[in-house]
Amino acid sequence: MGYFELIIACIFVNNILLAQFLGNCPFLGTSKKMETAIGMAMAVIFVLVVAGTITWVIYTYILVKFGLVYLRTMAFIVVIASLVQFVEMFLKKSIPALYAGLGIFLPLITTNCAVMGVCVLNIDKEFTFLQSLVASFFYAAGFGLALILFAGLRERILLARVPKPLQDTSIALVTAGMISLAFFAFQGMV
Amino acid sequence: MPKTLVQEFTKGLWQELPPFRLVLGLCPTLGVTTSMENGLGMGIATTFVLVGSNLLISMLRSMIPPKVRIACFIIIIAAFVTIVELLMQAYTYPLYLKLGVFIPLIVVNCIVLGRAEAFAYKNKVSLSMADGMGIGLGFTMALGALGAVRELLGHGSVTVWGDFSYNLSASFPSFQPFSFMVQAPGAFICLGLMLCLINAVGD
Amino acid sequence: MNEMVKMVVVLTVLSSVAGGVLAAVNKGTASQIEAQQLTFVKGPAIEAILAGSSINPIQNRVKISDGDVERSFFVGKFDGKTNTIAFEEFGKGFGGDIGVMIGVNLDSDQLVGAAVTVHTETPGLGAKAKDDPSLVSQFKGLSVKEPAKVTKDGGKITSISGATITSRAVCDAVAKAMASYQKMKPQLQQEIQKVGK
B55 lies in a domain? Predict the structure, then answer.
């Protein structure tokens, strides 16, 4: 598979949020405001690129080499958790405004399935190092795109009159279904 | 106010029913519920991890220093997830293949870490067990129900491990299965509408 | 200071205990996992090749080391004789490795059949190698000394139209398998005698 196809597949066809259902908790959690959505998207892109490459190196050069493949889940989550801790400390010191905005959701990147999921997918699909790097970045970009599109829609929904039982998460899920339907049109492109 | 064992168990079945009441753990909810069988399988695997990690964290809670508690929780949860992964490979290989990437992802299921932090770290072993089982059972039921609805509407019939099957198309000949329900957009919309239904009934 | 030490100790102890438990579980389930993978991934191919065997080839497998790698040979018993084996070899296809299981009769040195186990070829074209028996059925009856090549390369095998690379990869895998079979035949004969008993 060429890199161009890989990029299109990662952003649109296999969009991590809308086609693979990974990372839905922050998707619903941080999409109420455009500002937090953008912050979250950036944080995910950064963490995912670093985590995707580090876990690939660890898996290929340590776990496979020493026959410890069964420790994959454990190793990946530890790497991701420490990485998130690092990003949190970094943001707190250098960009306090962004840190305040993201608040509770930064530690939640640890439990963001999108990050862990892409790391596992890179291994399952037997990507090379460069492919993993490209896939990690563009999966994250696809995450950001979907999140920001969705945040725009949700800001509008706030102004609409919604029946009581449908309010909040319920209408958000139905809206997400609509966006997912739009992305569904990319199916079969690659 | 201290609650009884039964109360801790039953709250997971309705009051705090995941993923409807506690809007957590949505990824597996949406990802694996293309059939009732997958939903139930995922629910059972998650319940095992939930009960195991709740039990262990509650037992060790006086020994875990507060500052590194999250790291400790993650290690314990990851260990249980790996055990489930290995056991499923060994005994239910076809299901393991179908659930795929979602099994290692139990480790980042917010429900599991959420219960560890919010409940098991603060409560007695017996209560934590009841909590884990209740939430786990609720999650399994929810996934099974969502899977059943999607499979029924999407394929026109439901089959669970070959023992139980129901064919909607046979009962209602005019019914046409619409595969939209088992595809990605259907997952979001179906979950959204089910949540709406539960809100309407709950209020 | 004290707190720091406690933190480090707790984390270290916890990680090593977790690692130990996982190693034990991994060891305990390893053979069962291998059997499951064989049944569900390679099982259909093995069954197709060794259909009619009076013993289960997956349970009656022998392992022989070939250089650095250990190969599994699945043994079938026909008419009271354990003389047929099946094993897997890989060829480089259009989308990645293609696994081909081939069966050989040790008495006649002829191929009893071939089947594709795993592939990532294009659906409708290269994927026909697995779904459509017209390619793999041509290997049946071929002697292990004959070259396994497509007609374009001067062989006898008619390739799938529109999927020459896939067909070549399958031939390549079969040719490699034939070569290792010839190299390992003496060892194989010894090993399968044990299965017969």
Answer: yes
Question: d(Cα C95, Cα B39) in Å, to the nearest integer?
Answer: 32
Whole-prediction pTM = 0.78
> CA of C20: which chain B residue's CA is closest?
B79
The partner residue sitting opposite B72, judged by closest CB among C11, C21, C22, is C11
Nearest residue on chain A to C95, alpha-carbon basis: A1
C67: tokens are 């250089």
Q: Please, what sign has the CA dihedral across residues A17, A20, A23, A26? A: positive
C25 to B83: CB separation less than 8 angstroms, yes or no: yes
pLDDT confidence bin for A138, thresholds 50/70/90: very high
Positions of E strands within chain C: 61-66, 69-78, 81-92, 97-105, 110-116
Q: Which residues pair with B167 in a beta bridge?
A: B157
C26: nearest CB among A1, A70, A126: A70
How far is residue A161's CA from residue A132's CA, in Å, rounded to a whole number?
Answer: 44
Residue of B nearest to C15 (CA): B75
Q: Which of A121, A173, A181 sits opposite B101 (nearest CB)?
A: A121
Chain A residues closer than 8 Å to B113 by CB:
111
pLDDT digits 0-9 by tens, C137-194: 787 777 777 777 777 777 777 777 777 777 888 888 888 888 888 877 777 777 777 7
Interchain contact, A25 vs B27, CB within 8 Å: yes
Tens digits of residue pLDDT in A3-16? 888 888 888 888 88
How many domains are contained in chain B?
A: 1
For C60-119, how does the pLDDT look when each residue is reduced to its tens digit (9 = 90+)? 777 777 766 777 778 777 777 777 778 878 877 766 778 888 888 877 777 787 888 777
Answer yes or no: do B186 and A177 touch at CB < 8 A: yes
A71 in contact with chain C, both atoms CB, cutoff 8 A:
yes
- Helix or strand or coil: residue C138? helix
